[in-house]
Amino acid sequence: MIEVRVCPRCPRVLPLESLRCPACGGPLTSETRTGVGRALAATELSVPAAGWPAPHRLVVVELEGGGRVLALSPDELPEPGRRGRVERSRDGRFHFLG
Ligand SMILES: [Zn+2]
Questions:
Q1: CB-side exposure of 29: number of CA atoms within 13 Å?
Q2: Residues with a beta carbon under 5 angstroms from ion ligand 1
Q3: Domains along the chain?
């Protein structure tokens, strides 16, 4: 299970620990998702920010139940539509396990 933030007005789902919705400024509530989702898009950074491993693979994942998260992919880039599971590590980063 992973926690997401939801704006009850928009509705808008955010994976971050934001206190306010960036769209309407309203307060957010917490919900959980199973972590199961599918890859929408993916890219690989050959020159990531300092301190990050290269290549650095990023995946936009649509979660079942609603919401999108940006996750790291430890393996090759997933094809769009590929189902997998998102886990959150202790450092707060999301990881897509396809
Ligand atoms: Zn909102």
A1: 6
A2: 7, 9-10, 12, 21, 23-24, 26
A3: 2-97 (2.40.50.840)
